[in-house]
UniProtKB/TrEMBL annotation:
<keyword id="KW-0813">Transport</keyword>
<protein>
    <recommendedName>
        <fullName>Outer membrane protein TolC</fullName>
    </recommendedName>
</protein>
<dbReference type="InterPro" id="IPR051906">
    <property type="entry name" value="TolC-like"/>
</dbReference>
<keyword id="KW-0472">Membrane</keyword>
<dbReference type="Pfam" id="PF02321">
    <property type="entry name" value="OEP"/>
</dbReference>
<keyword id="KW-1134">Transmembrane beta strand</keyword>
<comment type="similarity">
    <text>Belongs to the outer membrane factor (OMF) (TC 1.B.17) family.</text>
</comment>
<keyword id="KW-0998">Cell outer membrane</keyword>
<dbReference type="InterPro" id="IPR003423">
    <property type="entry name" value="OMP_efflux"/>
</dbReference>
<keyword id="KW-0812">Transmembrane</keyword>
Amino acid sequence: MGLFYLSCQPAFGQDLVFHTLEEVLFFAKENSPEQRIRALEREKEGIASRMSRTELLPAFRAYGTWDNYLQLPVQLLPSEAVGGEPGTFTEIRFGTQYQINLGVEASLPLFDPELWSRIKSDRLRYQMGLQELSSKEQAWTEEIARMYFQVLLHEESLRLAEARYQLSDSIFQLAEFTFQAGEMEPLPFQRIKASALSAQHAFIRQQKQRDLAKSSLTTLIGAGNQPVGLSEKIQSLATKEEFSSYELNSLPSWRREELALALSQQAWKQSRASYWPKLTANGRFYQQTLGNNFNLSDASSFEVGVWGLSLNWTIFQGNQKRLKTKTAYLDWQIAKERQLHTQQILVEEQNQLDIELRQNQQLVNDFAPLQVLYEENYRLAGIQWAEGQISTDELLQVEKEWIEQQQEYLIALSDLFTSKALQAIRNQSYTETP
């Protein structure tokens, strides 16, 4: 793998040259900012999943309070109870003005089915989050594949435009020589000149489209300002027959629906678990200091320790729990239908992709020899026109036929490589990080 990576590295001042689509994707996954963002998002999802499991561990809390009672509570007692005059009452104040409390508390859930079910749901949500990231990565890689084939397509268009420009320019040079010698009328000369200029402009436009596609590919893969070059030729790819052979259950959308079904089922189980009671163990230890003077260093203090169990069981809540359980059950049934619907769509997409690959491949195979034939026709028409065997109208008509054939050929190539881009990405396997 290291040698593979080094083969994509440019020397100083040279273009970054890739030989296959796999090399482009490997470089993009190592250097693209989007891929680094997804890696950080995966790490974040993992942390969120681990946070939910911490609720099963003991919880400890330390606390401290300092209180200053500006007025203590008063209770009236019969005076004779404290040795006073019968029939009268004496004011008794309870407590001290200053109090300090320092302590620790601990709690541990012993029996909480709803909590355990929620932790399982959080784990499924974590896996769902990973599948969402995998779906984004698949869309991103498909975009890179489309742009890769688009660059190759523009280079093929540039090659055809250059061939037309060279032939048109050769005929124009001959027409210009003939016109200057006074052996050609102005209108035929002007038409041939216009055709040559049109071919030149088409060649320049194709150069611009190729450069723009390369720039977009450079940005997608994170190559920065380094020029990118592709050594693969579209002719070799066009003759290579490929068919959609990917496994449907390896697609992120397929696995996402499976996880959505499992998550909805777990949510239904969690809603039913809310009927069960919750048992928690609690413990508390604290020290309390009491005094009527601000300085409590010599005041009375005592320690208290206590532990116990708490049981919480909601018996009736206005039929709310039953309705929540019913809603969760319906969500589970909806998830089942959505999973079935998604699987049907993915099967149909695979069948359509297979049909498109076969038919587009056949069209390109049929167009390839026609391109050679139409180019040769234009070359022969140029020779016959120079020898005076055909008119300028016939020459330009042959050129028009060649241009139309080029356009049909490029459309077929575009359709073929759009299908190849989807097939190339979907044949890859996607696995989430555990």
